[in-house]
Design brief:
mainly alpha
Length: 156
């Protein structure tokens, strides 16, 4: 199935249903139908065939995902900022896209850096990639505890 059909013809529910066998074949599982639908919704613009979905979305379904070389470099560059950001993320009570965006923008402004200098290393820590859906969408989909565990692993 080509990307145009996946993005423009099939409903979100149909795409979610059709990626299930490919996820299972890759040894991946999901916590709920709502989680799977949201993952498909976020990733749908980024895959052209159903078979590509598990590879491109792996980080949404398992803690065992590869770290791209560029992402590793970006993570290493941003470690000092991420170490300072971590306690603020841990203390963040409202885990919504808007609240997280405000937190990260405020943090970047306080540090006198561009948002990307914080967001890209954080994206790398959470996904192993620099090519993902929006960071705030990823943070909310993963949830606070899962996102913090991944960040802790990257900072260790």
């Amino acid at each position: 199935m080509n990307g145009k059909y996946i993005r423009e013809v099939l409903s979100l529910e149909e795409v979610a249903e059709r990626v299930k066998p490919f996820l299972r074949e890759a040894g991946l599982s999901w916590e709920s139908e709502a989680y799977l639908r949201r993952a498909v919704e976020l990733m749908r613009p980024r895959f052209d065939t159903l078979k590509e979905f598990p590879e491109k979305a792996r980080y949404l379904f398992t803690e065992d995902y590869p770290m791209a070389e560029k992402a590793q470099r970006k993570l290493e560059e941003g470690l000092p900022l991420l170490k300072e950001l971590y306690p603020r993320l841990r203390a963040q009570e409202e885990w919504t896209e808007a609240a997280l965006e405000a937190l990260l923008r405020g943090f970047a402004a306080e540090k006198g850096v561009k948002l990307g200098q914080v967001a890209q290393p954080l994206r790398a820590a959470l996904t192993g990639s620099l090519e993902t859906p929006g960071l705030f969408e990823i943070l909310t989909l993963l949830g606070k505890e899962r996102a913090l565990r991944r960040l802790e692993r990257a900072l260790a």
